[in-house]
Amino acid sequence: MPRRPSRPAPAPAPAPAKPAAPAEKGQLHPRNRHQGRYDFPALIKCSPELGAFVITNPYGKPSIDFADPAAVKVFNRALLKQHYGIEHWDIPADYLCPPIPGRADYLHYLADLLADDNGGEVPRGADVRVLDIGVGANCIYPLLGHREYGWCFLGADIATNALASAKAIVQANRLEAAIALRQQGDALHIFQGLLQADERFDLSLCNPPFHASAEEATSGSKRKWRNLGKLDPKRKLPLLNFGGQAAELWCQGGEAAFVARLIKESAQQAQQVLWFSSLISKAANLPGVYAALTRAGALEVRTVEMAQGQKQSRFVAWTFLSAEQRQAWRNSRWR
């Protein structure tokens, strides 16, 4: 089985250059800006519109109603503005509103992965290029990755409306030099037909559709509302928690089928990406992922566990390059 591995723009003090020690169980990555409780007074001072959505939770602490899509969107906007200097962020109604701390964790652990090939130093700046498969309307990974590490991104998606929203965010924040967007014109493919032959990326990341059908996605949301004690028949809750369009939440065969296709196509771009990666929401899918990676000929595989409180998640990263080839890659690309 594959082994487990043990900031440019207005923002707080920069993160340390070296990879941080592994996070304690249930905690965010040590470089994650969202440790501890949210500072609602500071968030409201930065984004006054949030004040209208703040409530007092059963423990007597300020919070928001995470079952209210409008509240979640304004909350995300405030987090992005306070912590990352993103002045303008919005998404169309019913599109996925991402949990920012968890998205940031994925990027920080990917940075540690690159540091392993760089003498323990996280490579920063525009020389590092990242491919975001399924950038979505929210464009969250390119925004966070560029603000934290100065990386340049190519965000790809099949949905015209999602790309239009992402483009509006990029332009509003004058980030065109750092974040490019591209449409995958063939819904049956992921990498094929997307990349140009001379393009190279140090990382690819992906948050794949979790579910196998719209019905499964809806059922999952109802289960989450029930677990949160919010499934009140007197209240009209959003059909999908945190929103989400079809391509964001489900595909034929669900996560397992999508990631299998991602792995198979990655082998065809083996020399164009240093490290491929994908979130894996269901631990039960890992054996199939490992088997697909073996068939594809991956030379090294890493599984990185992450957690935000009680929420457990993970990503799997793989490369088709040997240690010697990765060093040559580093020497030719990272100044």
Automatic annotation (TrEMBL):
Q: Which Pfam families match?
A: Methyltransf_10
Signal peptide start-end: none
Give the UniProt subcellular location, in the record's own words.
Cytoplasm
The biased composition feature labelled Pro residues covers: 7-19
Keyword set, alphabetical order: Cytoplasm, Methyltransferase, rRNA processing, S-adenosyl-L-methionine, Transferase
Provide any one GO MF term from the record.
Answer: 23S rRNA (adenine(1618)-N(6))-methyltransferase activity
Kindly give the SUPFAM superfamilies that the UniProt entry links to this protein.
S-adenosyl-L-methionine-dependent methyltransferases
Record's catalysed reaction(s): adenosine(1618) in 23S rRNA + S-adenosyl-L-methionine = N(6)-methyladenosine(1618) in 23S rRNA + S-adenosyl-L-homocysteine + H(+)
Q: What is its main location?
A: cytoplasm
Question: Is Ribosomal protein included in the keywords of this UniProt record?
Answer: no
**EC number(s) stated in the UniProt entry for this protein:** 2.1.1.181
| Protein family membership | Belongs to the methyltransferase superfamily. METTL16/RlmF family.
Function as written in the Swiss-Prot or TrEMBL entry = Specifically methylates the adenine in position 1618 of 23S rRNA.
Please report the name of this protein according to its UniProt entry. Answer: Ribosomal RNA large subunit methyltransferase F
Organism this protein belongs to: Pseudomonas zhanjiangensis
Q: What is the lineage of its organism?
A: Bacteria, Pseudomonadati, Pseudomonadota, Gammaproteobacteria, Pseudomonadales
